Amino acid sequence: MRSSWLIAGTSLIHFGRKSGRLRLLSTPPIGWTFLHTDGAVNVGSGIGAIGGLFHDYVGSWISGFGRSISISDVLTVELWVIHDSLELAWNNGFLNL
């Protein structure tokens, strides 16, 4: 089973692959942008990956990013996902996150 996303009205619904549960993620107020991020690292190899997506108050996808990070640890991956998220938000004028 894979993780799935669904936009229903003004809400984003996530079906978790591991939990098998639906989560209703509320959308931000009008004029705001919502950001979802995630990062992971294989502690054996030290290879990490990060990604994120931005959607508007209606739940429509605006932008996203993803990339791998060589030789890292959990803290490094989390710091990179924060950095890349804020950089993309700033460059695209998403000031209300």
Task: Describe what this molecule looks like in 3D.
It comes from Hibiscus sabdariffa. This is RNase H type-1 domain-containing protein. InterPro entries: RNase_H-like, RNase_H-like_dom_plant, RNaseH_domain. Residues 37-96 form the RNase H type-1 domain. Pfam families: RVT_3 (PF13456). This protein is an alpha+beta fold. It has a domain at 29-91. 19% of the residues lie in helices and 40% in strands. It is built from one helix and six strands. It has one helix spanning 74-91; strands at 4-8, 11-15, 22-25, 34-41, 48-55, 61-69. The strands form two sheets. It has a three-stranded antiparallel β-sheet, with no helix packed on it. Strand 2 (11-15) and strand 3 (22-25) form a beta hairpin. The N and C termini lie far apart (31 Å). The model is unreliable at 5-10 (pLDDT under 50).
Describe the structure in brief.
It comes from Hibiscus sabdariffa (roselle). With 97 residues, this protein is an alpha+beta fold. The chain has one helix at 74-91; strands at residues 4-8, 11-15, 22-25, 34-41, 48-55, 61-69.
